[in-house]
Amino acid sequence: MNENSNQQDISRLRIDRDPVPAPAQERHISWKVWGALGAIVVLVAIAIVMMGVLKGPVEVEVGTPTLTYPGQANAVLTANGYVVAQKKAAVASKGTGRLVYLGVEEGDVVKQGQIIARLEDSDVQAALDKARADLAVTRSDDTTASRTLARTKQLFDRGLASQSDLDAAQAQYDRVHASIISSEANVRAAEVEVENTRIRAPFNGTVLTKDADVGEVMAPFAAAANSRGAVVTMADMTSLQVEADVSESNIVRVNVGQPCEIVLDAYPAKTYRGVVHKIVPTADRSKATVLTKIAFLNRDRQVLPEMSAKVTFLGSGGDTLAGGAPFLTVPSAAVVHKDGSSIVYLDQDGKAIGRSVVTGRTLENRTEVTQGVTSSDHVILNPHDNLKDGVSVVQKTQ
Prior knowledge:
This protein has helices at residues 3-11, 24-54, 122-158, 163-195; strands at residues 58-63, 66-68, 75-85, 88-92, 97-102, 109-110, 115-119, 198-200, 205-210, 217-218, 230-235, 240-247, 259-264, 272-284, 289-296, 308-314, 327-331, 335-338, 341-348, 351-363, 366-371, 379-381, 393-395. By secondary structure, the chain is of the alpha+beta class. The relative contact order is 0.17.
């Protein structure tokens, strides 16, 4: 073996450092790997997003803006009750008969003694006429008996009549005089029977209900079948008071003369000043309450019997606050302070919506809001720090 052949063999042993192009099949496999990795990354991202979606809406507590009254700043306690007329009557007839006249209807104002209804009275009127006729006859007899007695006395004085004649004339005169007294009593009794067919207002007041119609038979206490007792029900509107039940445990905080604030459910934006008129000296064992009567100090025509009312009993100096204009408040737990601004989150169709508000005074656990919300909004209480606009929310069930 010569030297040239040995060098050729050694040269074959050199390492070729030039890159060798990968076969087409291997390049195709590498692109598949990278595509699979990219798809995995996308799927992971989608899964993360979907996890947030599938987590569901955030449960929140919701409150409502309400009207608050200045007097509540000095409130001692509150109680519910009803407006009740202290002077009220079911007006009925003492007589029995068919109703032939009814001159009033609901809402009419009547005066004491005014005839508001009348029963048929032909029978009692006839009895009255007879009693008056009998009285006229007895008075005529009285004239005759009086003259007879006078003549008999003259004859007796002249000796022309005996004592028995004088006694008989005197007896006749006395009988006739007694008959006059009896006839006058009969006339008065008949007049009373006629008056019983006239139904009069017992006091100044307002007709609340009409309980009978013309043509119906009236009877005292409705004793007869298919008869009516009362014709109308009326009340003295100046006697209206609120009767509220105060629990036994709180009655010690109520005193006669204590100032109050009255709000009728029918007019929640209006307040009335009141004062404790009377604490009824007995308790209701079934409810463990004591009846308290509150008189109105500024009642108007809008206050009607049987309206439901809320009474706020005020502390010392509360009479200066009672009756003030109400203002809108939200639970203080709904107000969030961020960067010097006040924010309230609302629940609008299941979405949390942040809204800037202008706040005012604070009253117990409520805050006045002068701008930003209305009484129809639903505010989220104790909102989470990460609560954002558009987040789905659902109200917690009790």
